[in-house]
Design goal:
about 375 residues; alpha/beta; Aspartate Aminotransferase, domain 1; three-stranded antiparallel beta sheet; seven-stranded mixed beta sheet; about 40% helix
Length: about 375
Amino acid sequence: MDPLQSVLIKQLAIRETEGARRFLKEDQHGSIDFTSNDYLGLARSPELFKAIKQRLNTIDFKSNGSTGSRLLSGNSNYAEQIENKLAGIFKSEAALIFNSGYTANLGVLSSLPQRGDTILYDELAHACMKDGARLSLAKRFNFRHNDLNDLESKLKLATGKIFIAVESIYSMDGDQCPLKDLVTLSEKYGASIILDEAHSTGVLGSNGAGLAVSLGLEEKIAIRIYTFGKGMGIHGACVAGSTILKDYLINFARPFIYTTALPPHSLVSIECAFDFLVQNLSLQQLLHKKIDHFIHELKSVGETSTSMSSIQSILIGGNERTKRMAEALQQKGFDVRPIVSPTVSKGTERLRVCLHTFNSNEEISNLIQALSALKLF
């Protein structure tokens, strides 16, 4: 056997024994969606689908794909128009489109901090922020989740330019960053905040502009990353900030420089999704009513939630037990997926429940009862 194959088989076997081996699964057709990030239902919206199709017919695109990176043949006046539109929505001087939130975070964290600088990141920050920090020449340290005292103890020891990397809403527990207090602390030490708004884009703020804008803090945060593949129901991402930041990333962010640009269809989808949301801002209120209903029903079975967002977690513990609980719910028609280690720390394996505008109150109530029947509370 090829020596490489032997190594790969061995590593997969280890994952298997730990109950951590990953497999691709088809969508749970016919099941009630409590797992996707389509919080506002835009990914499944026939009205948005129609709007994108109609808009495509009004623009004379020359190709099906972008044909190259933005710095070669992949740029267009239309792409720059969309960036100007996004800058207006996110109340920033400028915006730069990336192919995904993952590559946007990679680009920012790998290129901005320099040798001798310090990156301090929340221990529960997404993998893309950690990967970006690893690619940087700066020193990097984590701090306890949402613990500003622990962060300050590390700020006192930091050298060079300091970057603090956090998320608006954390993807596993759904809890919110203490952003106002974080801004105050960052100003005390002259640190720059890198804020990933992935799970707040579309869901919070005027016109879906996220947490920072909803709190009036956009001018206090140097770098904000917005992802469109969750609440906005489409694909792509952007970095919002100053014009100088945009120019710097164009020149130094390798995931931007060396990647084929998004195709025309994706740019049209971005434009149409935000236009659609502006015309249907009631979706935000509807989503928060669904979240309130989930929390109310949780209280009815004697439990509380630490999250006020679309993401709700039920801690189980143990990979195999967590997967069994998910399978039991799936058999009852609820599409709920297990989150197991190493995605989360051992002992914190959980069921991740995502709430959506299209989940009926009855479906939410039935899910709570099914969870209770499994004696998970």
